[in-house]
Records
---
Amino acid sequence: MRSLKVLLLLGVAVTTLADKSAPVLVWESTESSAQALPAIPAMSNSQLQKHLNSLDSEALVMFIMNELNVEDFSGYPSAFPQLRREFESSLNAFTPSMSNPSQLSEQLDAYRRVTVDTQDVESLQLADGAQKTLFLVYVGDRAASERQAALQRTDELISTVLARVKSLTGKYSAMLTGKHTTMGGEAQRRKVRSLKAADEPAADASQFENLGCVFIYMSAPAVIRFSVAGDKGARSTWRVDLGNATFAADCNASDSSQTVTLSWNNISPEDHDQYKLTLDKIDLQLNFQAKMSGNDDPDKNKVSSWTLEPVTLTYSGTLDNHQQQETIDREEPLDFSNVYAPMEFSYHCTNRSWTLSRQNLTEEVAFSALELPGFQVQAFLSDDAPETFGRAWDCTTFFTIPIWSGLFLSLILLLVLVWSLMMLASVPTMDRFDDPRGQPLHVPNAE
Amino acid sequence: MGYYNSYLYSAGGLYLFVLTVIALYYLLTGQGERIDFGWFLTNTSPYMWAATGVGLAVALSVVGAALGIFTTGVSVMGAGVRAPRIKTKNLVSIIFCEAVAIYGLIVAIVLSGMIDTYDLDKVAKNPLILDNNIYSAHLIFWSGVTVGFVNLACGICVGTVGSGAALADAAEASLFVRILIVEIFGSAIGLFGLIVGILQVSQVKMGNAAA
């Protein structure tokens, strides 16, 4: 029973949704027969059809807009001046809502259909050999935000076409309707602004590696920047994206140090104007150094914090500057000493890049910086540690130096302000000559 | 007007509460080492310290002088109504208070002449430049604070004594010179502050040349 009701409801909904309705204005020239239009407020489709078929006019002009609302007449009172004149000087009828009015044209079989080319109204002719001609004018009003302008254009089109029809015959009728109202339009055509289709979210290029004693994570592949010698000693930067790295860890080097090596193989960056670089192997060796708590009892001497020192980047490959090929095999030390975290914390930094310590770069293509985006690392994990990173020890504190400086200075100024307010508040009023039993002051009310 | 004091106490209490909460948060979540005054002192801009020192030197001295002149001037005016002969003689007390402001002014001018900028690329080559600039900036700051607070106290002191001198002078003319001696001692302490302040900044070397 319940499912039947649901089906019925759905059926009704579907039919109502399929029904397109629009207001209809019909007017006839007074020269045609005085068959009054049905004076009922809501003319139905079939009634209008019967009436139009039985009309004595030679021409019926049907203006079909894409959209027509009752609000177009009430909301834009100055939009249809000529139509208003025509309409009110003829026998007229107005139906606020008629279903499927634009399909009337197919149902009026007493008429010969002629579709009017809105650009070429002057060449309109009555259909010869037929008694009645139906002129179909598709007013191509776009669903513009400038509704007023669209309505005014419609009005001009109506007057142009009617002027032509009037020159052809005196007995005409006209009808203005729309395919649907604004609400009943096809779902595909949207008048409101919609969000731009969002791009596909980029594939997640992050890398997390559990190496037993060390967790390491990068939110995007690493980047190496080379400094390329250019004209007149100016150097430019060449960015080389590395792909995913392979990891190797040595957890048992000693009680107080662990090593992790990241490797990238066969990196061929896009060609630079002058150089072509092929890197067979890039190795980044991270040495974690623990700082012990310093207890003399070896059982109680635990790791209290760790730093990342020393770090070496080794890369080898060939460099081709279009004149000769050079095999490169270089080793660069990097200063990672800021990477520090206490035990059970993980070091985390966003987009940190490590530049080379030495400044004078003499080679044509020299390594200048390594960037590890979203770098998070934790070392000296115990065997029973959980599978996720410990709390993040960020490379920048929450309260940065500028914040503290600002707080410090504003404290000084606020103290001054507070002192001055206290002084102001301590100004006493003169009460030497106050007499509680004296007469209150009398101020006469002068008119 | 009486409410203002309680508002100010509440604001001060709130400030201290917030500070305590922040400190306790760090402490109790195992990040106690983030509370690092050394990091604050060495990483803040040396210009902040130096400029604040200059400002405090003159500002606090002027506040002291102003309070002194306020105290003395009121008494001179009041006593001068009944004994007009004291008016001219007691201007000396006002001048002693003014001198306190001048000490602060002199120190501020001397200190601001020592401030100089340094370049980061020169620091990269020679880190000693930054060390000396931080050192100098701290010296300038605390010199300014020293002079400022000493002159603040001196100004209040000289003013109070000068006020007493005016009232005593109005009662009996021979008392003025004796109380003036007390006032001179009071003024000497301002001079002590000036001397110590200048001594503190004798080793200041700011700028690129500090090495």
Note: The CA atoms of residues 369 and 422 of chain A lie 57 Å apart.
---
Amino acid sequence: MDPECSQLLPALCSVLADPRQPVADDTCLEKLLDWFKTITEAGSSLLLLQENPCLLGLLCHVLKPQDLSPRVLAFSLRLAGMLAAQEDCFQYLQQGELLPRLFGEAGPLGGAAWTAPSVRSGWIQGLRSLAAEPRFLLFLSLSPTPGAVDTIFSLQGDSSLFVASAAGQLLVHILGLSLQGAAEGHPGLQTGDWPVCAQKIVSHIEESLRSAATPQITQALNVLTTTFGHCHDPWTQVLWVRLSPLVACLLEKDPVPAAHSLVDLLLSVARSPVLSSSSCGLWETLAQTLSHLSPTQAGPLALGILKLQECPQALRAQAFAVLLQPLTCVLEATAQAPGLLDSLDGTGGASVTVDTLLPSKAACVGLLCRTLAHLELLQPLPQRPSPWPQAPLLGATVTILRLCSGSATPTSDAGGHLCAFLVGCVRVQRAALDFLGTLSQGTGPRELVTQVFAVLLEYLTSPDSSPTVLKKAFQATFRWLQSSPETPGCSDLDPHTQLFLRELLPVLPKRLCSPCWEVRDSGLEFLTQMIGHWGGQAGFRHALLASEVPELTEQLLRDPESYVRASAVAAMGQLSSQGLRVTPASPEHPGGQQKSLLAELLHILSTDSEGFPRRAVMHVFTQWLRDGHADVAGDTERFVARVLQVASQDLDWEVRAQGLELALVFLEQTLGRPSSHCPYAVTPPVAAPPSPLAQALRPLCRVQLFEFAFRALFDCDRPVAQKSCDLLLFLRAQTASYSGPQGSGSVPEVASVEAALQRWQAGDQGQPLGYLEPEVVVAVLRSMDLEGLRGVLAESSDRVEKSPQSLLQDMLATVGALGEDEADCY
Amino acid sequence: MLDCGLDMTSTLNFLPLPLVQSPRLSNLPGWSLKDGNAFLDKELKECSGHVFVDSVPEFCLPETELIDLSTVDVILISNYHCMMALPYITEHTGFTGTVYATEPTVQIGRLLMEELVNFIERVPKAQSASLWKNKDIQRLLPSPLKDAVEVSTWRRCYTMQEVNSALSKIQLVGYSQKIELFGAVQVTPLSSGYALGSSNWIIQSHYEKVSYVSGSSLLTTHPQPMDQASLKNSDVLVLTGLTQIPTANPDGMVGEFCSNLALTVRNGGNVLVPCYPSGVIYDLLECLYQYIDSAGLSNIPFYFISPVANSSLEFSQIFAEWLCHNKQTKVYLPEPPFPHAELIQTNKLKHYPSLHGDFSSDFRQPCVVFTGHPSLRFGDVVHFMELWGKSSLNTVIFTEPDFSYLEALAPYQPLAMKCIYCPIDTRLNFIQVSKLLKEVQPLHVVCPEQYTQPPPAQSHRMDLMIDCQPPAMSYRRAEVLALPFKRRYEKIEIMPELADSLVPMEIKPGISLATVSAVLHTKDNKHVLQPPPRPTQPTGGKKRKRASDDIPDCKVLKPLLSGSIPVEQFVQALEKVSAFKYPSSSSLFSLEQHGFSDIKVEDTAKGHIVLLQEAETLIQIEEDSTHIICDNDEMLRVRLRDLVLKFLQKF
């Protein structure tokens, strides 16, 4: 411990021990405990106590009957547990009977302070830390704390959820500890031969499982779930064999109590390598549970079973049937083609009707959303059921979407009810569109794919689609378009997709004109994705150019909503990159010469009041520079100089950081290096011999890249400074071999630049550096301690405030114990 | 009478009335029967396969056969669209009652009527067709003329004089104002949230409450929000005026409207919006106010053409108390509540009474024109349809839900301009109705038959019908329905001096009774108990008694009895000797010593019979009556009666 801290600690302890002093907040005490933890982990706790007797004083002091704050009491209990975790310190504290007094009935346990949840929590956490000490179990079983385990039992039902949960976890830990030694090497040891403490806990769990009260059953199930989840020793198998009949008994009750916890337990058992591999009736219990639970409760269990790596095929089939039940219902109620039904319901599961499975609107919506989300999770997994019923799932999802939009025409009463429940339901629409998007990974019969595109088009066209639904519809559409097959031997889109695009493109202008900005924004995002993917394909280009989309996109650069402007910038960047920007000489623009896009984007970069569009412009410019866009390639230096000049003035740090990215691209291009400086990238041999470095650096100097980078190095936003530091380090590495003229003539210039940079670092960035010669730059780079700077930047900005000394000072300052502010008030 | 709406869909059967001579319309061929008989060719014209009546448009009036409208005492109006038939009722049926409506309803209703009269009167048409209405001839006509109902009752539009006279019979009311109707019921208008001044009505007596919910909206638009709380505890809720387009969500439609408008104008086309001069147009203008800048339409002129355009825009700004909260607060800033004021100030929105005059000099294309009438049969809209119909660059956007847009467009076919249907109907949809009914919980719901089943075209849409418990009672045209409640009680007031004289006796904890002797005075359906007049001293008969001095005979009042007779105790009492002190001379039996010893008690369905066999006497005790049947011995009866009375409370 620092001497400064040691000096401050006694004062703090006396503040904490004084009930009249206002206590620092919980966060401070937590930070203090964290600090003690690092000290005890690094060294001896005993030494800490001996060097700082005030700590022991505090621990003894809290035992005196007084009006101490619950926070301080809880803190002391946790501190005592933490210190006593080391053997010598445990002994030391035991000598003074301090531990039994703190954790036994004589301590807070019996006092009025026990009513505070923080004290109960501190007590549990103290014991939890103490459990690291080998004699903990003995301590627990011996007087004067024989009732500690019973107290933990009772705390399982504590009104504070934190306390209850911590108590459960402590029980699991104690059980594990007590069996760790005893059962090791004796895997066949039966529970009757287990240590007393373990037997006591097991009996308590048994008692709880037999209880009629659901909260108690839940507690027992949670303890078991944590146990089997964390410990895979052989004794867990003995425990499960003993308790599984009781767990199975729960299934006979109607309704099944604590169903969610039961599902968690069974899944935890099934995931345990010790238990799942043994023949302890687990699979039968799981099968039984699947058939006993309500559809809503069984869903998570079915998903969990299907996610298991190893599991009997019959159980998987049953679980999948349970998961698919709601969709089977939908198909049944809407009288789909029997082929679809067979493959969803062919697993022999009891046929369920809409009335029982989807009885009310809330139940129907909830169950369908969950089912769709579960299937979405399952779809990409390697262990998903095989064969995967792609076609029926597509059919069901399309049907659900049609029911939601009101375009389905069910013939049965049940279908009518479903329709009434689902019409206009945004939640189900979103879930179904997400799942439909996921299903694009698989194939389907052409007829169904046509239906998918039809329903997507219906959603994209419908004026009733809410903005969030529309966004999902766009995403799903893009995924389906991505997965549509390419015509063999031709790089263009297949005829069906082309047909769809022809219908889709007239929808897009309307969406781009929507009064709702979210819709305009998602329309633009979709457009950007489409151009990125198919911008080079003739069919798409033709359809796009024939539509009003390019013109409308350009108009949206002036949208009142900044997000839309940003998306429009990205879309225009793509359009322009792909040569899809139209420059009509329309009568509406009698001005004749239309502003170039580059000028328009530069205008946005320098004038837009919001950060998003400006960031988007920087992204587009970087991409343009990287791709050698025609507008840029003409006069790259002028372009880079202009952009860097504007970006350096920007108030948004992300714009400045993106400016550095652009600078890096330019730098790499200028120095003739490959654009990737990833250490694993294979560097192709440089084709042309590099020009002399000084000459190569000259363009960088001309665009004032260094002025920009040096300014960024002292940026008040750390990410910008870090990025600049990396860039300059990269540049210095590139120039390491440079041994150009180091004439004395340049020395004064170097000194003046260094002086200017020092002023910049001090915060005075008024004076520009002006044009710098490459030699000066190289000299300055070499003289700078960039590595040191990088080290400083790598530390978090609050490193000073986070020091323990600062923490102690703060806490003392809160109560005025530092004595500095005494004369302040009058 | 609840509301007084005019069915204007009848006008769809007529040819449009062009403001400027239209060669196309005037050269339409006459229609002839299949056999070539052309006697109707002057009355009926054919256009793109449809047949139209070439005459002044006529309207379908409310049902007049079922009841004699001269016997109607009161008409309650719920909104300005529901009063368009008022002049027909007040001026031509002998109606002498009162009409109740809110001020904005009357003012905007006047504007609508004025516009209607103006549209029709400014294009005088000499010809009036009546031959086709002959039932025998009508049968021969093609649909929809063949199927038009009650064509003989169709009438031409009223005159401005009739409008003024009708409106003079309206009494203005404010929201939550209680209006006594002949002492029988009280009516109260409540905000319905649909339009400026639109109301639902509560009709209640002291013990019954009927709510009339018509044309209500739960959406946040310009009017004051709907008052739902006051509709609670209704015995009957009459529900009508739900949205005509339950599948169209107004928000989505507004979005569709804006997008299509922008797309058309950007391509150099004009947009025509056939609309009423008040109502949704305010909301549309507000949406456009926010939208035009974002869509780059700031330079596009918006024209609002109606004989009442100016009044409508100005009226909307002065009815602050009838507006939603947001708009009301603007008035205190002070700012105009509707942003169309700013659109007018900045010259983005211009309004004209007609396309003649200033408009023709200001007119600039591409532009957006709002004008009437939504039926496309009269008004300035006819001219724009003729003018712009030939170009596919132009678009007509239908926002009013009252007319089928396909039927409205029929006489303009073939049409090149784009047609977009974005009906914006903010009235309650079925989901909102279901929420409303859950909230308000009326005992019974009464509604038109159409609301109790899905629309015929979407029979699977079970969500498009009213779903409530108990099921709604439905009615159809000309059906007489008895509302499911009976008036059981009337409220009677007691005069204070009479109330002072009452001496209540507590007969059960919390329940006290008192006898009242009073005169019941009934006037205008109000009942008042007044103290009875004091009996005047006889004046010796010298003076003549005046008729008014007659007082009702005040007999000695017998006490009122309450309670029940405990049979066991009663029998014990009969057996007790001391309880019966008969005068020894009058009795055959010596009760003084012995009492009754041969008492038999029989249980009956309603109570008990106590049989005194020797005395040949029978005491029948029932829940609400006691009979002592004792033929020969009056004394015994009196004694027994007194014994019975001992067990009862008297007051």
Note: The mean pLDDT of chain A is 84.
